[in-house]
Amino acid sequence: MAETTREEDAIRLVVERLKSAFGATHSPAEVEEAVAKAHATFAGRPVREFVPVLVERRARIILHESAG
Questions:
Q1: What pLDDT sits at residue 51?
Q2: Distance between alpha carbon 47 and the CA centroid of its chain, in Å?
Q3: In this model, does residue 2 exceed pLDDT 90?
Q4: pLDDT digits over 9-68, tens only?
Q5: Taking Cα atoms as reference points, which of 40, 27, 23 lies closest to residue 11?
Q6: What pLDDT, on the 0 to 100 scale, is given for residue 67?
Q7: How far is Cα of residue 57 from the mean position of the Cα atoms in its chain?
Q8: Which uninterrupted H or E stretch holds 1?
Q9: What is the pLDDT of residue 4?
Q10: Could you say which DSSP state residue 62 is in?
Q11: Is the dihedral of CA 48, 49, 52, 57 positive or negative?
Q12: CA nearest 31: which of 10, 15, 42, 13?
């Protein structure tokens, strides 16, 4: 359970970082949607330690692609 809370806290930090990084081109809702979409791709994976880092990378790709 503590691991889940740590991951959720880390994902919230990812959302905040990406809102700052993409605030000029994307709404907060778009950032949250990109993070949720990226996070969903790791659902059910047994190793959770690096999920927040991977989610941030994937969400950045999603946001860059949708900015064009």
A1: 95
A2: 17
A3: no
A4: 999 999 999 999 999 999 999 999 999 999 999 999 898 899 999 999 999 999 999 986
A5: 40
A6: 81
A7: 8
A8: none
A9: 75
A10: H
A11: negative
A12: 15
As given in the structure block, the two tokens for residue 29 are: 């809702």
Under 8 Å between Cβ of 62 and 38? yes
- Tokens 């919230």: give the residue: 12
What's the full length of the chain, in residues? 68
> Considering the entire predicted model, what is its pTM?
0.88
Note the pLDDT of residue 47.
86
Domain ranges of the chain: 2-67
How far is the C-alpha of 58 from the C-alpha of 1, rounded, in Å?
Answer: 25
DSSP-assigned states of every residue in 3-56? HHHHHHHHHHHHHHHHHHHHTTTS-HHHHHHHHHHHHHTTTT-S--TTHHHHHH
